[in-house]
Amino acid sequence: MILTGPEISAAANDGRIRICPFNAEQVNPNSYNVRLGSTLLTYTDPVIDAHRHNPTHAVMIDREGYVLRPDELYLGHTMEEAGSDTFVPLLFGRSSVGRLGLFVEITAPIGDLGFHGQWTLMLSPVRPLRVYPGMKIGQIMFFVATGSVELYRGKYQASTGPQPSQYWRDPIKAGTP
């Protein structure tokens, strides 16, 4: 079951969902709008290697915005810290942003129970697109979990700003003998 807007508001007020800062005007019929933070990361090496740390370059988005270019992966972040120990969050791009040709969070929309922090966003434009800090970029939906719950304690907990992949830190990696 998906939470409705009024239930998202009630859960944010009683602590079952944490959204900081919370703004009632960002509540939709069954989701909560999140805004783009002011920092972007890009990988600097021409080839990203899944088995090692990949260096990144940070870009600050100012009031004039920043133009995203096709064929580049940008790691952005939500302004809001969002999570729940009770409900499973899923983050998707807003349809109005998709209509601008921006893919947001296509491959990893599900959040873990117990994750609390700013969400890293994978941003991929199909053509040059100017984005701005604070623009509504995505929406989080919350789903009821069934069964016993084990809360997230992973490497991205309490994230602030965009986080590059830490796949290389996983003890078991695909393709490793």
List keywords for this structure.
177 residues; mainly beta; Deoxyuridine 5'-Triphosphate Nucleotidohydrolase, Chain A; four-stranded antiparallel β-sheet; three-stranded antiparallel β-sheet; 2 helices; 11 strands; globular; dUTPase-like_sf; dCTP deaminase; dCTP_deaminase; hydrolase
Instruction: Kindly report the CATH topology.
Output: Deoxyuridine 5'-Triphosphate Nucleotidohydrolase, Chain A
Q: What is the oligomeric state here?
A: single chain
What's the CATH H-level superfamily name?
A: Deoxyuridine triphosphatase (dUTPase)
Overall geometry: globular
Radius of gyration: 17 Å
Structural class: mainly beta
Query: What's the number of structural domains?
Result: 1
Organism: Nonomuraea rosea
Protein name: dCTP deaminase
Pfam families: DCD
Keywords: Hydrolase, Nucleotide metabolism
